[in-house]
C-alpha cells in the first residue's frame, strides 16, 4: 500500500479515546482498514478529511492531550 483514502473519521476533533479505539476508517486498493489508537489521548486536529487521499506515513491528524498547544507543530506540518 502506498496511499489510502480516508473513508470516515469515527471521532471528531476534541474527542477523547482509549488505546484500541478506532479513530478512522481508511480505504486501500484492497480493503477498508480500521486505524486504531495505540495509546489513549485526544484527537486535537484532523488534517485530512473524509474523502481525502494520503500517502503512507503522511500526517493525517494530530493527537495529544486535551488543551495542548499544537500551533508550533501545525506550522511545521
Whole-Å distance between the termini?
23 Å
The strand order across the widest sheet is: 4-3-1-6
Order of helices and strands: EEEEEEEH
What is the CA-based Rg, rounded? 12 Å
Write down the overall geometry.
globular
Ranges where pLDDT stays below 50 over 5 or more residues in a row are: none
Return the structural class: mainly beta
- Beta-strand proportion: 35-45%
Biggest β-sheet description: 4 strands, antiparallel
User: Can you count the beta strands?
Assistant: 7
Number of helices, where a helix is a run of at least 4 consecutive DSSP H or I residues: 1
Percentage of helical residues?
A: under 10%
Mean pLDDT reading:
94
Write the topology of this structure:
Elements: E1 3-9, E2 16-17, E3 22-27, E4 32-36, E5 41-46, E6 53-55, E7 61-64, H1 71-76
Antiparallel strand pairs: 1-3, 1-6, 2-5, 3-4, 5-7
What can you tell me about this protein's structure?
The protein has 77 residues and is mainly beta. Helix content is 8%, strand content 43%. The protein is built from 1 helix and 7 strands. A 4-stranded antiparallel β-sheet has the order 4-3-1-6, with no helix packed on it. A 3-stranded antiparallel β-sheet has the order 2-5-7, with no helix packed on it. A hairpin with a 4-residue loop joins β3 (22-27) and β4 (32-36). The two termini are 23 Å apart. The relative contact order is 0.27. The model has no long low-confidence stretch (mean pLDDT 94).
